[in-house]
Amino acid sequence: MKNRYSDLTEKVVFVTGAASGIGQAQAKAFLEQGSRVFGFDQQLGRMDDLSQQFSETFAYFLGDITNHSLLKKAVEQCHETFGKVAILLNTAGILDEYQPLLETDEALWDRVFAVNVKSMFQLTHLILPDMLEEETGTIINMASIAGFVGGGGGIAYTSAKHAIVGFTKQLALDYASQGIRIKGIAPGAIQTPMNAADFAGNGEMAEWVANETPVKRWAQPEEVAELTLFLATPQASYIQGTIIPIDGGWLLK
Ligand code: NAI
C-alpha cells in the first residue's frame, strides 16, 4: 500500500475526525504514503495507534471542533510541528438519530449545524490563506448521500449535508483560478462507529441497509480513504467542485 502516490510524500495534511471511522482511515492512508498528518478530534480514539505507528509523521490536537479558539491553536500547532497545510480534509461530523422536524429541538439542530457545517467554514477560513499564499492546495469536504437526497439522516443532518454540498461548490468556484482544488465526497453506507446502532442486536437494520444498496453491501472506511488519496493527487486536479458519491449505487434509485 506504500508510496503509490509519490506526490503525497511529505505533504502536510490536516484531518478532522481523525480518531475514528473515515477520518482515521484517511489519516492512516496518507501516513502510508509518507505524508505528515495532523489530526483533530475531541477524543483520542484510534489516534493513539497512529501516533505509535507513525511517531515522526503524525501529531494531533484534542478539542471540540465547534470551539474557534481551539481550532486556531490546533492550526498554529500544526504550523509549528509540520509547516503549512497543503491538504485539508474536513471529515468530522455527527448524525442526528434520524429525527424528523417535530422531534428535532433547536439545540439538536444547532449542534448538528455547528459540528458539521460551521466548523468547516471556520477551519477553512483558518487554513485557506496558507494555501493561497502557496498558490496551491486541496480541500476535501465530507458530504454524504444525505447531501443529495432525503432518507440518509433526519431533518438536521440532511439539511446540514446539503449545506456542505453548496459550501463546497461555491468555495470551488471562488478559488478555482487561484490554484486551490476543492472537492467533496458523498459516502453511502460505510461501516464505522457512527453506524454502530445499525449493527446492534441481530443487525437487522444493517442487513436492511445492505439490501437497499444496489451492490448489496456496506463499504469499509478504507474504501473512502482510497478515493480521498486519489482526489488529493495532481492527477485529479481537473476535478473541481464535484461531490463524488461512493455509495454502492444508492443514488441511482
Ligand atoms: P465516526 O463517528 O466514526 O467518526 C467521526 C469522528 O468525528 C469521531 O472521532 C468524533 O469524535 C469526531 N467528532 C465528532 N464531533 C466532533 C467535535 N465536535 N469536535 C471534534 N471532533 C468531533 O463517523 P464516520 O462514519 O467516520 O463519519 C465521518 C464523516 O463521514 C462524517 O462527516 C459523516 O457525516 C460522514 N459520513 C459517514 C457515513 C457513514 O456511513 N459512516 C456516510 C456518509 C457520510
Automatic annotation (TrEMBL):
Instruction: Name the Gene Ontology molecular function terms of this record.
Output: 3-oxoacyl-[acyl-carrier-protein] reductase (NADPH) activity
Return the Gene3D superfamilies for the record: NAD(P)-binding Rossmann-like Domain
Q: What class of enzyme is it?
A: oxidoreductase
GO BP annotations listed = bile acid metabolic process
Enzyme Commission code(s) on record: 1.1.1.100
The source's superkingdom equals Bacteria
For this UniProt record, the keywords arranged alphabetically read as follows: Oxidoreductase
The similarity annotation says:
Belongs to the short-chain dehydrogenases/reductases (SDR) family.
Please report the name of this protein according to its UniProt entry.
Answer: 3-ketoacyl-ACP reductase
Q: Which gene encodes it?
A: fabG1
